[in-house]
């Protein structure tokens, strides 16, 4: 069974290699964290604990300029970094999906990392 | 090919084991039912028939107190029960995903059951 | 790693075989295009290029009557056609998912085609 939560973070970034994205701008990123596991007492994981863990990992990026953290602050690099940070605390971590704004996203899955 | 529909149900529940969830409250649950199959005459399944089948299964829980039905009315237990009820009527049932409110969900898949 | 974008197209259609759908009506279709691949310079694919490719394929159907193009203009047939059109331009194409209106969808995946 899989369980997931999503939450948001607000960041600045610029991507030098992309025309029109090379000026500092920002996005509200929606981050979805999915855990897979067996149910124990009717739950895979308490949603509150999952959200708290996700938000702790997102703190590193929320209200920051991602261009100061990543050489290429692409959705792919950010979601990969979130996956790597989260798997330390979530052994059942299955995927992290991140929407950059509204209608575009990148997804890191267990087999990618 | 996969086809899916989603619909909503409004239920009360309380979860004794979880701090802050042990008082009776409620959620609008969004339930997504996914069927996998080959196309026949351009369709895997008529959306209307799929929705009617989903809504029939949801009737058992809609506008009810789930704490009177489940010992632990967690999203995991409810979505598992929906999957088991639906697979009697939907041989191609692939997954049932249920959002408890807006930003958290559990998903039961064929291989889980 | 997977990346995706979604966009919309507005079409008319009627489906003769389905009661209540046999009169010409229309939908805003939401089309999500997903590409899977390795990251190069921090990206699987530039979102703008992915969107431009998706929109080029959608042009064939946007603001058209799908009943003049498909014998059965079902979501399944349309999404299958979009997948076949898109895989010419997107070697890493993983899936195309299309919502017919709001709460029902069909998804064509690489292994379906």
Quaternary assembly: homotrimer
The overall pLDDT average of chain A reads 95
Shape of chain A: elongated
- Give the helix tally of chain A: 2
Q: Largest interface by residue count?
A: A-B, 17 and 21 residues
Strand residues, percent of chain A: 25-35%
* Main sheet specs of chain A: 4 strands, antiparallel
One letter per element, helices H and strands E, the order of chain A comes to EEHHEE
Coarse structural class of chain A = alpha+beta
What are the low-pLDDT stretches of chain A, counting only 5+ consecutive residues below 50? none
Structure explained in plain terms:
Three copies of one chain form a homotrimer. Chain A has 113 residues and is α+β, with helices and mostly antiparallel strands. Helices cover 24% and strands 34% of the residues of chain A. Chain A contains two helices and four strands, in the order ββααββ. A four-stranded antiparallel beta sheet of chain A has the order 1-2-3-4, covered by helices on one side. In chain A, a hairpin with a 3-residue loop joins strand 3 and strand 4. In chain A, helix 1 packs across helix 2. The longest helix of chain A has 15 residues. Chain A is elongated and about 50 Å long. The two termini of chain A are 21 Å apart. The mean pLDDT of chain A is 95. The interface between A and C is medium-sized, with 21 and 17 residues.
């Amino acid at each position: 069974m899989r369980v997931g939560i999503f939450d948001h973070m607000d960041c600045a970034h610029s991507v030098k290699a992309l025309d029109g994205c090379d000026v500092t701008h920002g996005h509200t990123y929606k981050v979805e964290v999915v855990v897979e596991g067996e149910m124990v007492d009717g739950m895979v994981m308490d949603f509150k604990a999952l959200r708290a863990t996700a938000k702790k990992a997102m703190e590193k990026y929320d209200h920051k300029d991602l261009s100061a953290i990543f050489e290429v602050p692409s959705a792919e690099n950010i979601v990969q970094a979130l996956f790597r940070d989260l798997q330390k605390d979530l052994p059942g971590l299955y995927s992290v999906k991140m929407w950059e704004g509204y209608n575009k996203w990148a997804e890191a899955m267990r087999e990618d990392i």
